[in-house]
Design a protein that fits this description.
The structure is a homodimer. The first copy, chain A, is built from seven helices and 13 strands. Chain A has about 240 residues and is α/β, with parallel strands linked by helices. Chain A has two domains: about 110 residues, Cobalt-precorrin-4 Transmethylase, domain 1 (3-Layer(aba) Sandwich), CATH 3.40.1010.10; about 120 residues, Tetrapyrrole methylase, C-terminal domain (Methyltransferase, Cobalt-precorrin-4 Transmethylase, Domain 2, 2-Layer Sandwich). In chain A, the strands form three sheets. Chain A has a five-stranded parallel sheet, with helices on both faces. In chain A, a hairpin with a 2-residue loop joins strand 12 and strand 13. Chains A and B meet through helix 1, helix 4, strand 5, helix 5 and strand 6 of A and helix 1, helix 4, strand 5, helix 5 and strand 6 of B.
Chain lengths: ~240, ~240
């Protein structure tokens, strides 16, 4: 068993945000596995097999990658952003847990620029103080838990980043999340909608919670909410380092 | 006023984790400003002036960079990790707030691989579910607020990342943080001490909260705490994507 598995983050979209470590791993790969639009970011070449699969088949994709690596291939699973943040790394270890025979496989996770940090950089420094990251999708957890975490995060006065805020399959939950935030944080709290960050379709919009509308987010949007001190300076948004 | 200011993240240490975007910004700079060990990571060359300063002078450093940019220089402020996570970006906007004449200055923040994501990648996928990031230093906020956030984060069952867990000036607070976590999360919760990640001095150690000792952390350590489902698989630590 001399194969290997690398779980690599491609960053938010711009090639200038792909780390040299990930570029080198892709250059050494025999197989690249991932969700269709992420695999499409890898240049085809001789000796490299691309395995593109649909969304929502993370475990199946992780198993496929483990099997290829166990068969001696040098496999890279690609995620957008960072593979450890609501992406493929956790799915790979979940699949590994069910395959004890593979526990000695050579697996490496290579970090990437995750969407919330790319979005924060574009806006200024909205995550410049303690913050949290919440996946708003209830595919893998009950919605009640999401609501509970939103309330506790507001009580802790964390700045917040939301991944997967809204999809066609569940259009009403993000409206509910905004309601909870308005109750807990007040109408003047700043909220940033960052869509397709660092790609040609990038759009960054900052409004108050009073002005926020559910339609401002879709599945390509990461949403950032400031803490009670987050403010505008010139055209930037920042959260002060200090707190009372 | 045709100067510019870039606030760039150098990542956790390994040059292979510096994004091409940051490398290009450094190649175009006339001046690099930053804390001594970070400026030391930038190769000297003709036409580039290096301005290295001591720690704990973030605002002064931000002002110096703004003044150089206002005078027409192309300035890069370097942070380790990501500049927006407990680093220089917030200090720059704080300095900008006090200098309204400079609000039209060309300022860009370039993201980097922040320590918690590099550490998580080395360990496996401990931040694979909702998580929070807390700066444990009380230089800029009351310690009582840190304790409050630890309790709320545990109540929300967030995985957690702690920056600046312990310094010579405040050796006892991290012991108190561990006490609070043991009370709130129980003795079996996994905690990862990741020191000098991606450098030759890297050391990653995973223990339970019962086994954790304050001396396991210093100022070069980022500490990760799992949520209630975080577990070992083989030699990796991961947090499942799903929750009940």
């Amino acid at each position: 068993m001399t194969g290997s598995l690398v779980v690599a983050g491609l960053g938010p979209g711009d090639q200038a945000l792909v780390t040299p470590e990930v570029t080198a791993a892709l250059a050494a790969a025999t197989d690249v596995v991932g969700y269709i639009p992420y695999v499409a970011r890898v240049a085809p070449r001789g000796g490299l097999t691309l395995h593109a699969s649909d969304n929502r088949v993370e475990l199946q994709r992780a198993n496929e990658a483990l099997e290829l690596a166990a068969a001696g291939r040098h496999v890279v699973i690609v995620s957008s952003g960072d593979p450890g943040v609501f992406a493929m790394a956790s799915a790979v270890f979940e699949a590994l847990e069910k395959s004890p025979a593979l526990h000695n496989l050579d697996i490496r996770v290579l970090p990437g620029i995750t969407a919330m940090l790319a979005a924060a950089a574009r806006a200024g420094a909205p995550l410049g103080h303690d913050f949290c990251a919440i996946n708003l999708s209830d595919n893998l957890k009950p919605w009640a838990l999401v609501e509970r975490r939103l309330r506790l995060a507001a009580e802790a006065d964390f700045a917040m980043a939301f991944y997967n805020p809204r999809s066609a399959a569940r259009p009403h939950q993000f409206a509910r999340a905004l309601e909870i935030l308005r109750e807990a944080c007040g109408p003047d709290r700043l909220i940033i909608f960052a869509r397709a960050v660092t790609t040609p379709e990038e759009r960054i919009e900052t409004v108050t919670l009073a002005e926020a509308r559910p339609e401002m987010a879709d599945m390509r949007t990461v949403v950032l909410v400031g803490n009670s001190s987050t403010r505008r300076v010139g055209r930037y948004i920042y959260t002060p380092r200090h707190a009372d």
